[in-house]
Sequence to fold (247 residues):
Amino acid sequence: MEELRAQIRKKRPVVHCITNIVTVNDCANVLLAVGASPVMAHDPREVAEVTEHASALVCNMGAMESYDAMLCAGNRAFRLGHPIVLDPVGVAGSSFRREQCLALIDEIHPTCIRGNYAEIQALMEKHNTAAGVDSTESSIDREGIMAFAKEKGTIVVASGIEDYISDGEKLFTCKRGDPLMSRITGCGCMSSSLLGAYLSLDISVETVTTCVMDFGIAGEQAAKKTREQKAGSMTFRSFLIDQMYVN
Fold:
């Protein structure tokens, strides 16, 4: 973990994020905290050029208005061999978004798909599994995760009470994190953005697992500090980004 973080700080990989307006600021700041260099370009007229000079691409389905930009940037990143992270925000509650996401997966061949239990389950089963963007699912079919990862040729991260990470051959479980992470918006989006930075160094299921664990540990540490100060969710949000900086 420390070795990967040191490499990020040394190489300062440029991570091109096409993400949603709710979390774009936090995604940029958490990337800066670990030493990466974020760029948030959404216009289809420039994204191919921007992603050509980046080290990784992160596409977030919460930015459906930028779908054409994700398609354009994703095709360029795939041709260049850059890692692509896809965050299927909201696909559990919208048939249109889910169908668009599945089409995008087949078009740009993401390196990693990271979503909560409901979102990953919705992609696997091709039907709605939740009403909103927040997961209320308490379990997920681990064998199904492996089969989906193998089918799509990608690394799948299913985030929940426990995080499951699979490349279709191996399955890892991460039990880090804190319930406070579900009380602020953007933790999933920040995690997906961080995956772009980590995968720019090494494309493997082990690297993805390290990133997930790193962010979970930061969440635990930030929650501990928040409770010690008898503070609330927005204090936790600041501490979380601070911990990614100091760890």
